[in-house]
């Protein structure tokens, strides 16, 4: 069931971040793109500053400067879209993309850097099979991938409402001065100036960060006339250090303040449209997550409406659903698309990605509220979730609803290790999670109702106690210790202690005796 909240179609109250601009959304997305290239956050932002300083040296007019600004921010935005195929050939899509900055891609060292990764992470026999497949046709697939990256980025720019000059520049991001780029239709001055500048600035940022001004000058000189415009390379050699931001430069603020078009901030439906475009684009990271963020957003908001949440809160919940998976860009598809059981290190990478989402969104004060909710979509009431292991006392109704919606949609979608579950099997799994004290029962039933499942009559329980909490309260009242309760219910003692803490907090009890009296007074000692 897909139900976009009314609140997302034009609410302009407290739920709309004040002054949120398009540049902030694109810049936030660029932080995730940085991680997908194994670069530190703000790599793209620093390359944008470098691009604008080159523009200053060239004396570009305002229109050309505006085109360059957005082209620089969007230069690599399409490169995660076929991460599944990159991981298939090279083992780790992020490791592959990181080689981009070490060598000229059309040089022998550049080709060897990619070839060394073929089939990486697999046994030798598998690597041989992958290498043979790559030699027979995979290399052509790789070329088409790179061409497709620029095409996708250009289409994304269109979806953001950017003008033709920007989309043409982004579409030419991988063309080369010598005509040996991708898709290889342009050469020399046929390539839009914004594309020539942003491509050079991208590589300058990495060279300067790793080796200083001399390394940046050397790189520009060595690739002049092949990858880069000779006139721009000469400019780098001449003015050098004046092109590069220093460590004290507040990069985020500098880039946002430099946005060429200071129009009205995005609000209501206009803001939602941009967030949906970003959500759909991020979900391209894996074929197993296509449409996931949009579906989670719709279901979260619909479930929140069943729970009677206010319209401003519904809007925040809907938008948090759209952005909750931004951090996925920072984890390799060697992990996301792996059918075999994950290793300990791989599981830790998975546990990190909601935190990456929060970090990406926290750079913008206007987006930070969404990030603080989105980061909790994998937390669980009993403290078994991630990234922080929060327990029920720290999880709002919105966070509980988002978690239930994400869990349901994930179960209804295929994953590398299993087929998609049917609606009945998914609802049964969610209710099991409720009984085991991991998901909130009210949020689960609201989400299932919103998804079209028949409503289940829930027994009235005082003080918001969950079924599992009632079960544990009965055993506490009978005098069992945490260890004994854990053994009887097949739980860990730590989980029982967490539940006990929540029971005491909800009921106002300070010890076993007062909790027992609460149970007697409310008729909780009788099994349902």
Overview of the molecule:
With 528 residues, the chain is mostly helical. It folds into three domains: 22-257, Orthogonal Bundle (Hypothetical protein af1432), CATH 1.10.3210.10; 268-458, Hypothetical protein af1432 (Orthogonal Bundle), CATH 1.10.3210.10; 464-521, Winged helix-like DNA-binding domain superfamily/Winged helix DNA-binding domain (Arc Repressor Mutant, subunit A). It is 60% helix and 0% strand. It has 24 helices and no strands. The protein is elongated and about 85 Å long. Mean pLDDT is 90; it is low at 6-14.
Please, what is the oligomeric state? single chain
Task: Write down how many β-strands occur, each being a DSSP E stretch of 2 or more residues.
Answer: 0
Q: How widely separated are the two ends? A: 32 Å
CATH architecture verdict of the largest domain: Orthogonal Bundle
Q: How much helicity do the residues have?
A: 55-70%
Mean residue pLDDT: 90
Q: Output the CATH homologous superfamily of the largest domain.
A: Hypothetical protein af1432
- CATH C-level class of the largest domain is Mainly Alpha
Q: Which fold name is given in CATH as the topology of the largest domain?
A: Hypothetical protein af1432
Sheet of most strands: none
Order of helices and strands: HHHHHHHHHHHHHHHHHHHHHHHH
Number of helices: 24
Q: Can you tag this structure with a few keywords?
A:
single chain, about 525 residues, mainly alpha, Hypothetical protein af1432, Arc Repressor Mutant, subunit A, 3 domains, 24 helices, about 60% helix, elongated
């Amino acid at each position: 069931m897909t139900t976009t909240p009314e609140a997302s179609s034009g609410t302009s109250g407290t739920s709309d971040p004040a002054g949120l601009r398009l540049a902030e959304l694109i810049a936030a997305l660029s932080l995730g793109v940085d991680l997908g290239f194994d670069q530190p956050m703000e790599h793209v932002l620093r390359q944008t500053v470098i691009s604008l300083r080159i523009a200053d040296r060239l004396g570009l007019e305002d229109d050309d400067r505006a085109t360059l600004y957005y082209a620089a921010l969007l230069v690599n935005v399409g490169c995660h879209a076929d991460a599944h195929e990159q991981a298939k050939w090279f083992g780790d899509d992020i490791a592959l993309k990181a080689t981009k900055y070490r060598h000229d891609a059309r040089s022998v060292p550049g080709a060897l850097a990619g070839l060394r990764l073929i089939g990486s992470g697999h046994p030798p026999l598998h690597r041989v099979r992958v290498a043979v497949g790559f030699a027979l046709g995979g290399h052509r697939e790789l070329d088409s991938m790179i061409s497709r990256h620029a095409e996708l980025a250009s289409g994304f720019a269109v979806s953001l409402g950017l003008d033709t000059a920007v989309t043409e520049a982004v579409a030419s991001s991988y063309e080369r001065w010598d005509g040996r780029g991708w898709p290889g239709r342009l050469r020399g001055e046929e390539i839009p100036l914004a594309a020539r500048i942003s491509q050079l600035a991208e590589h300058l940022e990495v060279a300067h960060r790793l080796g200083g001004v001399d390394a940046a000058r050397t790189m520009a000189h060595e690739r002049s006339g092949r990858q880069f415009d000779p006139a721009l390379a000469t400019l780098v050699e001449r003015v050098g250090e004046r092109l590069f931001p220093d460590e004290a430069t507040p990069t985020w603020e500098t880039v946002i303040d430099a946005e060429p078009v200071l129009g009205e901030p995005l609000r209501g439906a206009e803001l939602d449209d941009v967030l949906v475009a970003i959500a759909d684009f991020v979900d391209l990271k894996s074929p197993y997550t296509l449409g996931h963020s949009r579906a989670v957003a719709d279901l979260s908001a619909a479930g929140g409406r069943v729970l009677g949440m206010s319209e401003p809160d519904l809007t925040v919940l809907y938008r948090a659903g759209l952005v909750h998976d931004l951090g996925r860009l920072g984890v390799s598809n060697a992990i996301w698309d792996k059918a075999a059981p994950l290793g300990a290190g791989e599981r830790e990478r998975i546990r990190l990605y909601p935190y990456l989402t929060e970090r990406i969104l926290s750079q913008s004060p206007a987006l930070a509220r969404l990030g603080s909710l989105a980061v909790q979509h994998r937390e669980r009431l009993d403290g078994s979730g991630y990234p922080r292991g929060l327990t029920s006392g720290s999880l709002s109704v919105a966070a509980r609803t988002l978690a239930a919606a994400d869990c349901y949609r994930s179960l209804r979608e295929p994953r590398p290790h299993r087929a998609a579950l049917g609606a009945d099997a998914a609802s049964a799994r969610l209710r099991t999670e409720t009984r085991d004290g991991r998901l909130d029962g009210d949020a689960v039933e609201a989400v299932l109702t919103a998804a079209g499942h028949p409503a289940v009559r829930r027994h009235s329980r005082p003080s918001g106690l969950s079924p599992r909490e009632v079960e544990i309260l009965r055993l506490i009242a009978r005098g069992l210790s945490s260890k004994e309760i854990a053994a009887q219910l097949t739980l860990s003692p730590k989980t029982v202690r967490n539940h006990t803490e929540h029971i005491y907090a909800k009921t106002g009890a300070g010890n076993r005796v007062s909790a027992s009296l609460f149970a007697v007074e409310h008729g909780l000692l009788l099994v349902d």
